[in-house]
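Thread: "does anyone have the structure for this chain?"

Original post by V.I.:
We have the sequence but no experimental structure in hand. Need at least a predicted one for the grant figures.
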Amino acid sequence: MPIDNQLYTLYTTADVFLKTPDDCDLIFRLYLDADQKLTLGAWYNKQNNFSTIEPDFMLIPFEQAGFNWQAGMFFGDQRLCNRQISKLGEELKKPGNGCVFFTPAVDVNLSKQINFEIKVGPLAGNNSISVSLGIVISNTNPSPPRSTSTIK
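Reply from O.Q.:
Generated one for you, tokens below.
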């Protein structure tokens, strides 16, 4: 089976995301799933010490993001710092916000580095949602480089 060159909006449920320990960052690494789709595995990171060799949780491909990865794009680890995780956690505790969505975006200021815009919202019973209706709460910080990326 060939690798799918579509980029997907990825998600995890609130109950999975809210298990992130208060004193940890999240580090995400690209992973090719059984359907040959690029997704992200997540590790809890406390002062550069990781909890496990295997990811603590995986993001699930949800819907096509509207563009393909291609030659000249960079993929790197992605990071959410503790204050971003806390902000997302506050939003997830509001009524109707059952999932965290990671939508890929190309940061042209970082040599076409792929990063992710993060939104929260519901996941309907039929797995449909208009992710575009949500507001961007945060962005992942590509690593490397870190210093030029904006963290909200």
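V.I.: this helps a lot. Residues 126-133, 145-152 have pLDDT under 50 and may be disordered.
O.Q.: and Helices lie at 14-17, 82-92.
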